[in-house]
Amino acid sequence: MSEVLDKPNLFQRLMPMLRGYDWPLIFIIGMLAAIGLTAMYSAGFDHGTRFSDHGRNMLLALGILLVVSQIPPHRLASFALPLYGLGVALLIAVALFGITKKGAQRWVNLGIVIQPSELLKIAMPLMLAWWFQRREGALRSADFVVAFAILIIPVGLIMKQPDLGTSLLVMAAGLAVIYFAGLSWKLIIPPVLIGAIGLLLIAIYGHHLCEDGMDLVVLHEYQRQRVCTLLDPTRDPLGKGFHIIQGMIAIGSGGLMGKGFMAGTQTHLEFIPERTTDFIFAAFSEEFGLAGNLLLIFFFLLLVWRGLAIAMRAPTLFGRLMAGAVAMIFFTYAFVNMGMVSGILPVVGVPLPFVSYGGTAMVTLGLALGILMSVARSQRQLAREQAPRL
């Protein structure tokens, strides 16, 4: 009888696993997931099983989050080199015998068709964080040169596919780690100034860039067309400019409070292309207006803030770099998606986290959040161990 009474119940067995979770982060994730499900139900209720599949993808991401969050950061660091090496090898395989769809060679068949560039969204910051942790206390300028080489190799392979959107996300994640590792402002300011001057020149002389017959070595033709469409969507209103024009119409027609849940005419009359994936922000804006957009942006900013707060308190350099990189990954995702839908950035095919439909992207985000939660748990566990015992 005593053995039966002393046997822990299910709740008692689960408590050690739940201890140390960052509950503010969980609340923010829950709110973004609720907004995403609401938007997907409205935009995709007549798209077969899109809503149920979106919910399934969220549950899968949650499972990955819970599993990865149980792994201490120093164990996660041991996966950095193998994941990075595997990712680069698969990118080379894509370049040699990858599958081409819609003019892009981004997939490889390994029994199942996969897109290796998605792996680098996590493997890249993981690898760079591992590299800088190994150099902690003895960091030199040459170490940053090696870090940039680690970053450029996969980014170059991804751009060659070509896949501008994914290459930008991988580059942003890597640059965030390099910046948080202590890159000098003397090295940051020159490329920023060059980029700003380049954007100014494009804005002034963009019409020459878009002239027929213009051939730019630095850009693929489809990339040049995207820049030209951004500068003037009306030059091809029923073709390449259709996405941007319809997205801006939907966002503007939402007004302050929106047309109401499932009442968006641009959305349900199918004027918005890809309304459940890349352009779901336009559908959300039409139905929930500026108020809904501000709420969505508020929770994304909260997520970024919480990630940076976790990074500041992380007990190791690896944890600080990874948590900071994850926070900037979510910022980049949200900023680029909202920017391209609203017509201030080129259309590059970047999903909106929690809101856009996509199984691979959701799994990647679940993995990133799991790493962030792992860093938060390690900090809380260290605080408990160092707390004076009465």
Automatic annotation (TrEMBL):
Protein name, entry field: Peptidoglycan glycosyltransferase MrdB
EC number: 2.4.99.28
Membrane-traversing stretches: 23-45, 57-73, 79-100, 138-157, 164-182, 188-206, 279-305, 317-336, 356-376
Function description: Peptidoglycan polymerase that is essential for cell wall elongation.
Recorded topology in the membrane: Multi-pass membrane protein
Top-rank taxon, per record: Bacteria
Pathway info: Cell wall biogenesis; peptidoglycan biosynthesis
Family annotation (InterPro entries): Cell_cycle_FtsW-rel_CS, FtsW/RodA, RodA/MrdB
Family: Belongs to the SEDS family. MrdB/RodA subfamily.
Swiss-Prot/TrEMBL catalytic activity: [GlcNAc-(1->4)-Mur2Ac(oyl-L-Ala-gamma-D-Glu-L-Lys-D-Ala-D-Ala)](n)-di-trans,octa-cis-undecaprenyl diphosphate + beta-D-GlcNAc-(1->4)-Mur2Ac(oyl-L-Ala-gamma-D-Glu-L-Lys-D-Ala-D-Ala)-di-trans,octa-cis-undecaprenyl diphosphate = [GlcNAc-(1->4)-Mur2Ac(oyl-L-Ala-gamma-D-Glu-L-Lys-D-Ala-D-Ala)](n+1)-di-trans,octa-cis-undecaprenyl diphosphate + di-trans,octa-cis-undecaprenyl diphosphate + H(+)
Subcellular location: Cell inner membrane; Membrane
Organism: Comamonas koreensis
Record keywords: Cell inner membrane, Cell membrane, Cell shape, Cell wall biogenesis/degradation, Glycosyltransferase, Membrane, Peptidoglycan synthesis, Transferase, Transmembrane, Transmembrane helix
Gene: rodA
A biological-process GO annotation: cell wall organization
